[in-house]
Amino acid sequence: MKYFLLVLALMFSSSAVAQDFQPIFNGKDLSGWTIHGTEKWYVEDGELVCESGPDMEYGYLTTDRTYKDFILTLDFKQESNGNSGVFIRSSVEGIKVSGWQVEVAPPGSHTGGIYESYGRGWLKQPAPEDEKALKTGEWNRLRIRVEGDQVITWLNDEVMVDLTDEKIGDATGSIALQIHSATEGNEVKVRWKNLRVKVLE
């Protein structure tokens, strides 16, 4: 009887946790998001796709809502050149971004690391042995926890970096997906799905 009650309690507990996470992409259109730049953002087969456009410049897709402390989970699959990223506590003017990027990039290019654009550059990169968690050409699960001064990232359930930074702690902003600039013949294409956020209070 005790075992049955324990299992039941765990089931309700898991359900409550799952209900705390809310989808921020509806799988149908870009409602709740804003495009910055000329690069392509569209929905295909229930997935969000970013792809190099005519200018092959940087592009961003930002949430209309801003977030301070949260946990974000999402799946991504890199096609062609998969150089992209997820910005936290960010803002965009034109195609210039302020904020911090959790890198999504080809093998050996520090996926899960944290980079400050137009600022200090790399703040923390994963250890070389941890970068092996990236599955080339397959779906990968990225998890980002942002609370106060601390940012922790996981790739396929492996911790990539754990960073504490006062400047990040002072900021509030959008969640943003990035598409990197490209050259002809080396265009960027990345697919995203299952984007969910849990706000920490």
Describe the structure.
With 201 residues, the protein is mainly beta. The chain has one domain: Exo-inulinase, domain 1 (Jelly Rolls). It contains two helices and 15 strands. Strands 1, 3, 4, 6, 11, 12, 13 and 15 form an eight-stranded antiparallel beta sheet that branches. The chain has a seven-stranded antiparallel beta sheet with strand order 2-5-14-7-8-9-10, with no helix packed on it. A hairpin with a 2-residue loop joins strand 12 and strand 13. The N and C termini lie far apart (35 Å). The N terminus is likely disordered. InterPro entries: AL/BT2_dom.
Give the topology, please.
Layout: H1 2-20, E1 22-23, E2 33-36, E3 40-44, E4 47-51, E5 59-67, E6 70-80, E7 84-93, E8 96-104, E9 114-116, E10 121-124, E11 140-147, E12 150-155, E13 158-164, H2 166-169, E14 173-179, E15 188-199
Antiparallel strand pairs: 1-15, 2-5, 3-4, 4-15, 5-14, 6-11, 6-15, 7-8, 7-14, 8-9, 9-10, 11-12, 12-13
Organism: Fodinibius salsisoli
Domain 3-keto-alpha-glucoside-1,2-lyase/3-keto-2-hydroxy-glucal hydratase: 20-198
InterPro entries: AL/BT2_dom
- The CATH C-level name is Mainly Beta
CATH architectural arrangement: Sandwich
Structural class comes to mainly beta
Uncertain regions spanning at least 5 consecutive residues? 1-18
> In whole angstroms, how far apart are the ends?
35 Å
Number of extended strands: 15
H-E string: HEEEEEEEEEEEEEHEE
CATH topology annotation: Jelly Rolls
> What's the domain count?
1
